[in-house]
């Protein structure tokens, strides 16, 4: 595969000295494809914005180490400035797609394969600034190592139907899940249409590549060119009403790809969840389990163990007033989510055999992402990113969140 990729693109006439410079496409022979007249030159891919925005809050308190020496303090300040600049670049919109090859004798021989990454990278449409990074359109980057010292880079926006529509219109046509479109509340009122952002993750399975976003269906991409092929249904496994998580899991014990969806039923105060298990060879469905979990739910990630699918059930809700304000366009629906610190967080254990879910009370927290999870000697072992509460930020002002660092 790598040979085919390298053959299709020009070699670098003057290869850079190692180590490879990743974010300097202008220093090497590049092949660019303009995607619109708006915006400025791409400055990287904007990858990792989602995770960064989760961890870094608007007004988190900075606790510096006690009385650092002058030199150490200067280094800390310099590092902090560099971090702030890097963080701010996550809010810049990429306006072009890149395709180039670099060469370095220092790359390990035999290192072959492709690393895919997805993230929101289109944060400006015409003159309209998208105010929350979660609402940016996805761009997938692929970095291929050929085992001969060559590394080939290309990135492309995921051409969802909404992306194409807005590119042609040169303005935001859809409300974000976490930020409004331009034009004030009147432009947003009663507009509950959803644009598939395809901006959160990529899944390579059975030789096929998909850009994932939990509010919609997977978008299939060409694994070599990362060009968009169209909306996928996993060979019909996903029905018209189904979405698919951005964080599928691989079950090493069975070799299956496991994913889920969740859809809150606010009037009935339940959340409907479905889990799929795909056979190792492709998308034939080995199992689909449907379950109902009480209350409104916000489930971004999950775990699969030998006997359970595991979700973190946080004490979140949308108040009637929040829902009304959301419908009237005064705030996004995401901004209407409230966290009740007086209630416990629960682990929801949904048995893989389809029997009734069980719940375990934990200290109050919010878990956006799990690490690993498994069963051992009758115990459940879980790694997770533990946050004291849910912080999504108020995107209505359009201010950028502030980067702070917590240090113990
Ligand atoms: Fe995530």
UniProtKB/TrEMBL annotation:
Record's keyword annotation contains Oxidoreductase: yes
Gene Ontology MF, one: carotenoid dioxygenase activity
Protein keywords: Iron, Metal-binding, Oxidoreductase
Binding site for Fe cation: 247, 300, 369
Gene Ontology biological-process entries: carotene catabolic process
KW Iron (keyword) present: yes
UniProt xrefs under PANTHER family: BETA-CAROTENE DIOXYGENASE (PTHR10543), CAROTENOID 9,10(9',10')-CLEAVAGE DIOXYGENASE 1 (PTHR10543:SF89)
Family per similarity comment: Belongs to the carotenoid oxygenase family.
UniProt name for this protein: Apocarotenoid-15,15'-oxygenase
């Amino acid at each position: 595969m790598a040979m085919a990729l390298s053959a299709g693109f020009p070699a670098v006439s003057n290869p850079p000295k190692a180590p490879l410079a990743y974010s300097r496409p202008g220093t090497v022979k590049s092949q660019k494809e303009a995607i619109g007249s708006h915006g400025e030159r791409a400055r990287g891919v904007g990858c990792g914005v989602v995770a960064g925005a989760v961890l870094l809050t608007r007004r988190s308190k900075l606790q510096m180490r006690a009385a650092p020496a002058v030199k150490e303090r200067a280094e800390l300040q310099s590092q902090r400035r560099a971090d702030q600049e890097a963080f701010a670049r996550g809010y810049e919109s990429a306006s072009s797609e890149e395709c180039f090859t670099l060469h370095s004798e220092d790359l390990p021989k035999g290192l072959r394969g492709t690393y895919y990454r997805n993230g929101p990278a289109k944060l400006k449409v015409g003159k309209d600034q998208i105010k929350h990074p979660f609402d940016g359109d996805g761009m997938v980057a692929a970095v291929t190592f050929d085992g001969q010292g060559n590394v080939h880079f290309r990135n492309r926006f995921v051409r969802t139907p909404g992306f194409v529509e807005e590119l042609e219109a040169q303005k935001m046509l859809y409300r974000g899940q976490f930020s409004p479109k331009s034009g004030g509340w009147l432009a947003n009122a009663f507009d509950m249409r959803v644009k598939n952002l395809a901006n959160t993750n990529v899944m390579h399975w059975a030789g096929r590549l998909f850009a994932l976003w939990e509010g919609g269906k997977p978008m299939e991409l060409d694994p070599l060119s990362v060009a968009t092929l169209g909306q996928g249904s996993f060979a019909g496994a996903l029905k018209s009403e189904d979405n698919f998580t951005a964080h599928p899991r691989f079950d090493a014990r069975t070799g299956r790809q496991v994913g889920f969806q969740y859809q809150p039923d606010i009037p009935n105060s339940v959340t409907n969840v479905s889990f799929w298990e795909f056979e190792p060879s492709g998308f034939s469905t080995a199992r689909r389990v449907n379950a109902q979990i009480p209350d409104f739910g916000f489930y971004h990630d999950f775990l699969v163990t030998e006997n359970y699918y595991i979700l973190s059930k946080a004490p979140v809700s949308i108040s009637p007033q929040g829902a009304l304000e959301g419908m009237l366009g005064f705030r996004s629906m995401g901004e209407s989510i409230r966290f009740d610190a007086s209630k416990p967080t629960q682990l929801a254990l949904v048995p893989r055999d389809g029997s009734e879910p069980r719940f375990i009370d934990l200290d109050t927290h919010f878990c956006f992402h799990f690490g690993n999870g498994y069963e051992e000697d009758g115990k459940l072992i879980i790694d997770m990113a533990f946050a004291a509460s849910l912080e999504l930020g108020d995107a209505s002002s359009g201010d950028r969140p502030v980067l702070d660092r917590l240090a113990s």
